[in-house]
Amino acid sequence: MTRFGPDVLRGIAVEHIDALAAGAALLGSGGGGDVALGSHLLRRALAPAGRRVEVVPAAGLPPGALVVHAGVVGAPDVLAERLLAPGDLARAVEAVVGHLGGDLAAVGVIEIGGLNAVAAVLTAAHLGVPVVDGDLMGRAFPGINQTTAAVAGHPAAPLALVGPAADTVVVPAASPAMAEALIRSCAATMGGAASLAMYPLTAAVLAAHGVRSSLSACHALGTAYLTRDPAAGARALAARLGARLLFEGRVDEIRPPLAGSPGCTTLTSPDGGATARLDHQEEFLAVTLDGVTVAGTPDIIVALAVGSGAPLRADQLRPGHSLVLLGLPALHTWPPGTAALVGPPAFGLDLEAVTTP
Amino acid sequence: MLRLGIDVGGTNTDAVLIDGNRVLAATKAPTSPDVTTGIVTAIAGLKQAAEFDPAAVAAVMIGTTHFINALVEGDRLAPTAAIRFGLPATSALPPLVDWPDRLRTAIGEHSHLCHGGHEYDGSRIADFDEREFRAVLERAVEAGARSFALSSVFSPVNAEFEQRAAEIIAEELPGRPISLSHEIGRMGLLGRENATVINAALRELAEHVAAGLTRTVAEAGISAPLFLSQNDGTLMDVDYARRYPVATFASGPTNSMRGAAFLSRQADCAVMDVGGTTTDVGILQNGFPREASTDVSVAGVQTNFRMPDVLSVGIGGGSHVTHEGGPRVGPKSVGSRLTERALVFGGDQLTATDLAVAAGLADIGDRDRVAHLGKDLVRAGLDHIAERMAEVVDRMRISPDPVPVVAVGGGSILVPDRLAGASRVDRPEHYAVANAIGAAIAEVGGEVDRVFSVQPGRRDAVLDEARQEAVDRTVAAGARPGSVRVVDIEEVPLAYLPGNATRVRVKAVGELSLGDSLGELGDNDA
Question: Which of B81, B131, B286, B377 is deepest in the core (most CB within 10 A)?
Answer without folding.
Answer: B81
